[in-house]
Amino acid sequence: MNLIVSIIGKQNSGKSTLFNKLTKKRRALVSKDPGFTSDRQYLLRIWKKRKFIFIDTPSIYLINKKSKFNNQSIIAIEESHVILLVIRYESYGSLDNHLSIIAFLKRNKKNFFVILNLDDNFNKNYNFTDKIYFLGIDKICYLNFLKENNFKKIFKNILYPEHLSSFKESNKNNKVSSAIKNLTLNKIEMDKYPKIAIIGRPNSGKSTLMNCILRQNRSTVSNSPGTTKDVLYSLYSNKEKTYLFIDTAGLVKKKNFVHINKSVIKNTLNVIKKIDVSILVIDSCVGITKQDLFFLNYILKYNKSLIIAVNKLDLISKKNKKEIKEKIIKKISFFKFIKIHFISAICSFGINNLLYSIKATYKNKLLKFETSKLTRILRKATFNNQPPMLNGIRSKLKYAHPGGYNPLVIVIHGIKVISLPKNYISYLKKFFIKELNIIGTSLKIKFISSINPYSK
Ligand SMILES: Nc1nc2c(ncn2[C@@H]2O[C@H](COP(=O)(O)OP(=O)(O)OP(=O)(O)O)[C@@H](O)[C@H]2O)c(=O)[nH]1
Ligand SMILES: [Mg+2]
């Protein structure tokens, strides 16, 4: 049994603080900047053997259109059995600012409770309370978020199953299965699925791509850079497999950190270290920038599989398409093993091929190679291009065997192998990648020097 509870409210009302307290995690990024949360975050909390799925939401009102509701909050309201409307007590006027959302919840017969986030000036006798009852809200909980530690009373007084008939009905609809798909999983649960992260510069179309693949409005899309601020998870299943898709915040260089919260970038870079396959989204109107190359190298440094998705192809005229495609391919010609897809996330163009590549790249990661095959390839590589002479002596590469998978490590044994020059190592890497038909992933080569029995 799962009870889905969404936490809604105006900007800076304390939603993410409440979300973190109720889930006992520091999952949601909390910031003083109004409107910081831009997407829905889902977390599971088990309390007295009951399962609660909490949803943190962005501000209920759109920041620039104050009377309009945020679509992400509306989705959360529709998905939930219970809604906690957080109101920050600042002034007498604060309730008036919520009249339209209260009317909306009532009109739609939603099971909602008001959580009043108090400050030190609050006086219960003040006619604020009367006003609440006048509006017909009898389900109210007073809490000082900053001072109070006992958030259990929300479970006891509000969410306790006996209070809610909807709890018993919760499994009868498909709300639960869709909410479960969006849960932030713990490490053990996460490792059950191939992890695919969508990475790239701000505004390249990462969230649009995520929504297009999932066929749901999971991530907020907007034309102002820096929309996605936190890491978003969602399970995607096809006939064969379930994948965990991860949308991330747009990556910018360190010196531009001022515009985007540092922890946002840190979270994204940490995600890269844990994933299986990353899709680097490039805006075709901008082309490949230095920053893209930096992040491409960062992904490969951690030996993660990589696919490039050049997005917004619909914005390129037929005449320029060929030229732009050639330019991009040329810029990353060094990384021949990386698959490049030209797509339009908004028009769902090229998505099936991209999904096919994700599947193939992931499968490729799991391939196992025999010592005999690797040694055969090594011999071919040295026959085609001998190792260079160093101080009059030529290195001798004897045999190769796998030294680990995910990332693939090939261990080469031989004489004088430690001093092999970088360009020869790079030649060997490319040769193995080509012969093993590796897609989208790099490999590591380790050398072990055998002792020459004839040396003095
Ligand atoms: N024409 C066109 N526009 C697109 C496409 N994909 C995304 N966009 C637009 O590009 C803008 C940014 O899209 P988002 O999906 O929010 O980009 P993002 O990479 O997630 O941005 P951040 O979260 O800010 O890093 C929005 O206005 C989208 O509508 C596409 O394929 N074609
Ligand atoms: Mg985004």
Description:
The protein has 456 residues and is α/β, with parallel strands linked by helices. It has three domains: 2-178, P-loop containing nucleotide triphosphate hydrolases (Rossmann fold, 3-Layer(aba) Sandwich); 185-365, P-loop containing nucleotide triphosphate hydrolases (Rossmann fold, 3-Layer(aba) Sandwich); 371-449, GMP Synthetase, Chain A, domain 3. 33% of the residues lie in helices and 23% in strands. It has 15 helices and 17 strands. The chain has helices at residues 15-23, 71-79, 99-107, 128-134, 152-159, 165-169, 175-181, 187-190, 206-214, 262-274, 290-301, 318-331, 351-365, 371-384, 422-435, and strands spanning 2-9, 41-47, 50-56, 82-88, 112-117, 140-143, 195-200, 232-237, 242-247, 277-283, 305-311, 339-342, 389-390, 393-394, 396-404, 408-415, 443-449. The strands form four sheets. It has a six-stranded mixed beta sheet, sandwiched between helices. It has a six-stranded mixed beta sheet with strand order 8-9-7-10-11-12, with helices on both faces. A three-stranded mixed beta sheet has the order 15-16-17. Helix 15 (422-435) links the parallel strand 16 (408-415) and strand 17. Helix 14 (371-384) crosses helix 15. The chain is elongated, with a radius of gyration of 27 Å. The termini are far apart. The structure holds guanosine-5'-triphosphate and magnesium ion. Magnesium ion binds next to helix 9.
